[in-house]
């Protein structure tokens, strides 16, 4: 790991928390002086389930998959993390071991902030703490797996849920349109959604025909986020795309 003072303009959630809670510049500098950036290769683990939570992770570039293993070592993936999003805070603030594994889907750059400095800022600045409380309250963690792999949910809806979970602010402007770059092949999407590749292909064709999501290789054009959201099962809990574990 090497020190790094600046982060690219990627809509970093941690910096959004800092900006909205008026943390003084001197304390922001104190935080950034402890930050290190790690280059992570595809398929490499950033942190592993069961290991100690020693700090907060922010994804600077690339995409990461979060998955949980049960007592029988059955692995269930439940979220794709994109640039600017945070990881590891549930276990950090819970003072417990990581309950999931973060594994790179692509080559990534990951910013790491030691536990000590993050907790100091939480203790010293109530506004900063409240931002994290809000994030924690909205985070469903591994429960998102039900949206992606629930056999009672149609494959088309599971695919839409995946697109919504991958939606990050820097990808989608305010005009309600969106362009997503998929960090995985379609066979990987099928495995993530516990569906057959031909079922994924059929869902992709249907979404394109209906003008909901147009797939072109790994690029997905979404003409209307409202229409995409309307595709989800109305009985499901609403998706919140601004939080991670």
Widest sheet: strand ordering: 1-2-9-4-7
**Straight-line N-to-C gap:** 22 Å
Proportion in helices: 25-40%
- % residues in beta strands: 15-25%
Low-confidence runs: 1-5, 234-245
Named CATH topology of the largest domain:
Jelly Rolls
| Overall 3D shape | globular
Break the fold down into its secondary structure elements and pairings:
Elements (H helix, E strand, L loop, with lengths): L1 E2 L9 H8 L4 H8 L3 E5 L4 E3 L7 E7 L2 E6 L5 E7 L4 E2 L1 H6 L6 E4 L3 E7 H10 L1 H13 L6 H5 L5 H12 L11 E4 L4 H7 L4 H13 L4 E3 L2 E4 L2 H6 L15
Antiparallel strand pairs: 1-2, 2-9, 3-8, 4-7, 4-9, 5-6, 5-8, 10-12, 11-12
Helix pairs in contact: 4-5, 8-9
Structure description:
The protein has ten helices and twelve strands. The protein has 245 residues and is of the alpha+beta class. It has two domains: 138 residues, Jelly Rolls, CATH 2.60.120.10; 85 residues, Arc Repressor Mutant, subunit A. Strands 1-2-9-4-7 form a five-stranded antiparallel sheet. It is globular and about 55 Å long.
